[in-house]
Amino acid sequence: MEDKQPSLKEALHMSLWAQTLTPVQMARVEAETYEVFVPKGGFVCRKGVAVESWLGVLSGIVKINNFSPAGKSVTFTGVPAGSWFGEGTVLKNEPRRYDVMALRDSRIAHMPVSTFNWLLETSLPFTRFLLMQLNERLGQFIGLVENDRLLDPDTRVARCLASLFNSHLYPGIERLVQISQEEVGLLSGASRQRANQALQLLERQGLLRVDYGGIRILDLEGLRNFEA
Fold first, then answer.
1. What CATH number does the domain containing 198 carry?
2. FRET label pair with 226: which of 134, 144, 151, 196, CA 20 to 30 Å apart?
3. Domain ends where: 72, 105, 123?
4. pTM for the predicted model, two decimal places
């Protein structure tokens, strides 16, 4: 039996940025934020489209990626349930520069831009949260560029899994990551077969265990520091 998923209201209240909102602010967020279901393989949003909302993953997992003119897909990161993203595009008020696709059936929260901007104007803690969010995101992407250019596939898979454990960006993640080997490959830029080989190596090293329904992390620091 699948775990009961939180309602939109419950998920909003569990979000880190919501912890310091006043009752009035939270009431407006609840009234104006809405939910959209995106099936596996579907687009959460498309590159070049005008931004209309700040996005949160209520359930499922999505990937942020782009396609080259030749059709090659480049994945920047995965975003698991409990996480919010896209604040940079909202702040710059520009069309999205990337696609976001659902790696599995996902429920997506949409906070309208008008609500987001109102929180910026009325909540100093919300503004501080966004500063931390942007700083953490910058560090994450610097690491991703380094991993892509310098590391072998085994190490990329290890760092990819470790990157999901960021208490600010991904507060809902647990040691049993509900992610498939195919999804690991998509997020780390490796084929499913190559990702499977890397996971077997990491399992032999005692860093993780491939369980039914996901991957159980046994040694997070070991994953972060792993080098093949």
1. 1.10.10.10
2. 134
3. 123
4. 0.76
Residues 93 and 161 in one domain: no
pLDDT in tens, 15-62: 999 999 999 999 999 999 999 999 999 999 999 999 999 999 999 999
Position of tokens 């208490």? 167
Q: How many domains does the chain have?
A: 2
Q: What residues make up the domain containing 89?
A: 8-123
d(CA 112, CA 195): 37
Give, in order, the Cα–Cα distances in Å from 115 to each of 88, 123, 202, 203. 15, 12, 44, 45
Where does the chain have alpha helices with state H?
Answer: 8-14, 23-32, 87-92, 113-122, 124-150, 153-163, 181-188, 192-204, 220-225
Token readout for 59 is: 């359930």
